[in-house]
Amino acid sequence: MWLCGLTSCNRAPTFSQDIAPIIFRNCSPCHRPGEIGPFPLLTYEDVSKRAKNIAAVTQARYMPPWPADPSYSHFIGERVLNPSDIETIQRWVADGAPAGDPAKLAPQPQFTRPSAATKPDLVVKLLEPVKIPGDNHDHFMVVKIPYEMPQDRFVRAIEFVPGNRKLLHHMNGHIVQYEEKKKNPFEGPYVVDRESVRTLEDTYDAIHLLNDDGSYPELTPSVANYLPGGVSPAGYPEGIGGWKLNRKGAFLMRDIHYGPSPVETEDQSHFNVFFTDKPPIRPAKEMQLGTLGISEIIPPLIIPPNVVKTFTTKTVTQEDISLLTLNPHMHLLGKSFEAFAATPDGKTIPLVKIPKWDFRWQYFYTFPKMVKIPRGSTIAAIAVYDNTAQNPNNPFSPPREVIGTNGSMHMTDEMFQLIMKYLPYQPGDENIGLTNPFVQ
Ligand code: HEC
């Protein structure tokens, strides 16, 4: 017996009329050539041949992956199927996945993401690929990609395009900007093992990042990040965020993490840079709570074996701020994550809640509109870790004590971070939409 969907009670659902719109909106952005989905979901053939699998993963809410609780807070690019979509898929599959009338088929979506449609103004790429040894170990590297342009420019957005999508796990990208004190930003070497350069000083020495007189060049942090599930570069409306980019400089991937591979292989990731003629009127700032951040983790991040343990970290805002983007970060033992702000007049502003942490999907969540956090508010994050044998992602069997180390970044160590991009508040910010030009 059918239960009725909200939209289609009387007629059996078909691909053309009912399924294609659901798939195009919620699945195709990742399931298309060049993206992270392992196969395309663009045509009737693509979808019908996996119909049963699709019915299962949507009903289990395994796909589309969207760990943030949509009843807590909303973000740009939110992909969550409503119950009637899930049921329509179930009915369609049970009916034998009919194609329906091709004349009624919605047109395939046009993806306007820069790498696919627009030409970047500048592509910054390593001259030679990074070699990844075939030793079945994780590799953490520091990689520099120098560039030189005829003149200084303003940058609106930077997109990181991973070369080896299979092995590249995460990457934090910064820019080192040179003025006249550095003649040649192209001096090698370009790649060094992260383990061999413990401190920032070592790193700068090892890949020749310092100015010619030994002084430190200006560093613009976190211009592009890539984390599991990351599908879109950060981008805000014109004038918000953005950077000035000096004529000479180098992209610095201080932490680029490649997963284990049994055979030697390589990666030649690159950055797409999009210019604008307008200076960044309101450059975004970054605040980081927890590991490597401004706030202490309470209690210290030590997770004994066979326990589920809760940690908190918090800070008090010193000025009115407008929040743009959040990134909650934990590793394999993460179980849940919640962040909110408590205002001085007793209100709670929900920020993000992840009831079932999945380390594979670590998004940068951008609010649809800026969120004002008044001065004197407490921004708090609560993270729960599951170090029992019941956690299928526990890297140790039997479970062992796991500690949070300051930035070693190994997947078997833990981290607890909330990274926030924000602006000093200006009246009216609450009404400014943050449509990311790069999110579908
Ligand atoms: C954010 C990107 C993204 C979106 C959106 C997305 N997928 Fe996926 N999908 C992936 C990735 C990556 C994998 C492979 C890794 C995995 O299985 O976790 C995958 C795997 C799958 C699988 C194979 C699962 C298995 O192991 O059997 C199916 C089926 C699937 N997706 C269907 C869908 C459908 C249907 C939608 C939309 C309702 C969707 N996906 C939306 C990225 C995405």
Helix content: 10-25%
The average pLDDT value, as a whole number, equals: 89
**Strand order across the biggest sheet?**
6-3-9-5-7
Element-by-element helix/strand order: HHHHEEEEEEHEEEEEEEEEEEEEEE
Q: Tally the structural domains.
A: 3
Q: Uncertain spans, ≥5 residues at pLDDT below 50?
A: none
Task: Produce a short descriptive summary.
10% of the residues lie in helices and 32% in strands. It contains five helices and 21 strands. Helix 1 crosses helix 4 (83-94) and helix 3 (51-59) runs antiparallel to helix 4.
Report on this structure:
- The chain has helices at residues 15-26, 44-48, 51-59, 83-94, 200-206; strands at 122-125, 130-132, 139-148, 153-161, 168-178, 191-193, 218-226, 243-245, 248-258, 265-267, 270-276, 285-290, 302-303, 308-316, 321-329, 334-342, 348-354, 365-373, 378-386, 402-403, 417-424.
- By secondary structure, the protein is mainly beta.
- It folds into three domains: 15-104, no CATH class; 122-276, Jelly Rolls (Sandwich); 285-431, Jelly Rolls (Sandwich), CATH 2.60.120.
- It has a five-stranded antiparallel sheet with strand order 6-3-9-5-7, with no helix packed on it.
- The model has no long low-confidence stretch (mean pLDDT 89).
- Heme C (HEC) binds next to helix 3.
Question: Topology of this protein?
Answer:
Blueprint lengths: L14 H12 L17 H5 L2 H9 L23 H12 L27 E4 L4 E3 L6 E10 L4 E9 L6 E11 L12 E3 L6 H7 L11 E9 L16 E3 L2 E11 L6 E3 L2 E7 L8 E6 L11 E2 L4 E9 L4 E9 L4 E9 L5 E7 L10 E9 L4 E9 L15 E2 L13 E8 L16
Antiparallel strand pairs: 1-11, 2-10, 3-6, 3-9, 4-8, 4-11, 5-7, 5-9, 12-21, 13-20, 14-19, 15-18, 15-21, 16-17, 16-19
Helix pairs in contact: 1-4, 3-4
The chain binds heme C.
